[in-house]
Amino acid sequence: DTAVSQTPKYLVTQMGNDKSIKCEQNLGHDTMYWYKQDSKKFLKIMFSYNNKELIINETVPNRFSPKSPDKAHLNLHINSLELGDSAVYFCASSQRESEQFFGPGTRLTVL
Amino acid sequence: ILNVEQSPQSLHVQEGDSTNFTCSFPSSNFYALHWYRWETAKSPEALFVMTLNGDEKKKGRISATLNTKEGYSYLYIKGSQPEDSATYLCAFSSGGYQKVTFGTGTKLQVIP
């Protein structure tokens, strides 16, 4: 059983399109996160969300938005995709401050 | 933007050698320090979570210490094995567990 899953694994799309990446966790965790792995392979937090608070990294463009239909899901919506959005995006979850469990990543390529 | 630095950036060690690396973080408003192991083509996997000054954690041949007053954590690997080859990341939380900053990582290569 996959603890944290992401779909799709690969996403290739044209500049200007709107796309979503889904994330689901079956660990019963109360907090979920989205990270972007940049061109230098660094992990940068984009959002963290529990049922009380959404924390947004101020460097994230407002074209990116998280949507949580329920506690087990935190999807990432991206509007008007740009070339610079090409990256690997990781979802993660945790039970409060305990260790985070990461999904397998989604490689987004914007052409 | 919080500055979380790891050193060295990379290192090569012989199988059987012991090694250690450092994570430096701001000493104010500390909440937690995590260590993760990240193998190529996989996802980061948690090693330790430390929240108290002086914490020491151990898992097999890997251990970690924490000094929140001076803002550093050490990760030690005893008797390195080729399967220890990976990038080791630290992650610092400040002012709450949701505000996470990852370090740049230390890439370890263990030579058989």
Q: Could you give a quick summary of the protein structure above?
A:
The complex is a heterodimer of chains A (111) and B (112). Chain A is mainly β and 111 residues long. Chain A has strands spanning 4-7, 10-13, 19-25, 31-37, 43-50, 54-56, 64-67, 75-78, 87-94, 101-102, 106-110.
List keywords for this structure.
heterodimer; A: 111 residues; mainly beta; seven-stranded mixed beta sheet; B: 112 residues; six-stranded mixed beta sheet; five-stranded antiparallel beta sheet; 11 strands; 0% helix
The H-and-E topology of chain B, N to C, reads as EEEEEEEEEEE
Major sheet size, sense and barrel closure of chain B: 6 strands, mixed
Largest sheet of chain A: 7 strands, mixed
- The radius of gyration computed from the alpha-carbon positions of chain A, rounded to a whole number of angstroms, is 13 Å
Mean pLDDT reading of chain A? 93
Rg result of chain B: 13 Å
Distance between the termini of chain A: 34 Å
Strand content of chain A: over 45%
H/E topology pattern of chain A: EEEEEEEEEEE
Helicity of chain A, in percent?
under 10%
Considering DSSP H and I runs of 4 or more, what fraction of the residues of chain B is helical?
A: under 10%
The structural class of chain A is mainly beta
Could you give the distance between the termini of chain B?
39 Å
DSSP summary, beta strand count of chain A:
11
Regions with little confidence, pLDDT below 50 for 5+ residues of chain A: none
Strand composition percent of chain B: over 45%
Write the layout of secondary structure elements.
The complex is a heterodimer of chains A (111) and B (112).
Chain A: E1 4-7, E2 10-13, E3 19-25, E4 31-37, E5 43-50, E6 54-56, E7 64-67, E8 75-78, E9 87-94, E10 101-102, E11 106-110
Parallel strand pairs in A: 2-11
Antiparallel strand pairs in A: 1-3, 3-8, 4-5, 4-9, 5-6, 7-8, 9-10, 9-11
Chain B: E1 5-7, E2 10-14, E3 19-24, E4 30-38, E5 45-50, E6 56-59, E7 62-67, E8 72-77, E9 86-94, E10 100-102, E11 106-111
Parallel strand pairs in B: 2-11
Antiparallel strand pairs in B: 1-3, 3-8, 4-5, 4-9, 6-7, 7-8, 9-10, 9-11
